[in-house]
């Protein structure tokens, strides 16, 4: 299980990892906290695939799912589709 605390501006405040291989996974989060990185930095981080580190990237990416599927984004996409049609 991985749990990450993030403030409203997207900065990573802390991380807890429980389970097998937790020591491998926590390293990236401690570096992110020490360097005052935002969750978007973890989501765009390039890691070797397939490895356990990919879990950290997926977790960070999940933070943005509610934003991507919000009504505001859907309205913007509909508007752009009306303007550009199938060109997008």
Could you write a compact summary of the structure shown?
One of its GO terms (molecular function) is flavin adenine dinucleotide binding. The chain is of the alpha+beta class and 88 residues long. The chain has helices spanning 22-34, 39-43, 53-62, 65-68, 71-84; strands spanning 2-6, 12-17.
Q: Can you give the mean pLDDT?
A: 88
CATH architecture level-2 label: 2-Layer Sandwich
CATH class: Alpha Beta
Low-confidence stretches: none
User: How many individual helices?
Assistant: 5
Number of strands: 2
Rg, please? 16 Å
CATH superfamily: FAD/NAD-linked reductase, C-terminal dimerisation domain
Overall spatial form: elongated
The proportion of strand residues reads 5-15%
Strands ordered across the widest β-sheet: 1-2
Largest beta sheet, briefly? 2 strands, antiparallel
End-to-end Cα distance: 38 Å
Q: What class do helices, strands and sheet pairing give?
A: alpha+beta
| CATH third-tier fold name | Enolase-like, domain 1
- Kindly state the percentage of residues in helix: 40-55%
> What would you call the quaternary organization?
single chain
Indicate the topology.
Layout: E1 2-6, E2 12-17, H1 22-34, H2 39-43, H3 53-62, H4 65-68, H5 71-84
Antiparallel strand pairs: 1-2
Family: Belongs to the class-I pyridine nucleotide-disulfide oxidoreductase family.
Domain Pyridine nucleotide-disulphide oxidoreductase dimerisation: 4-55
GO biological process, one term: 2-oxoglutarate metabolic process
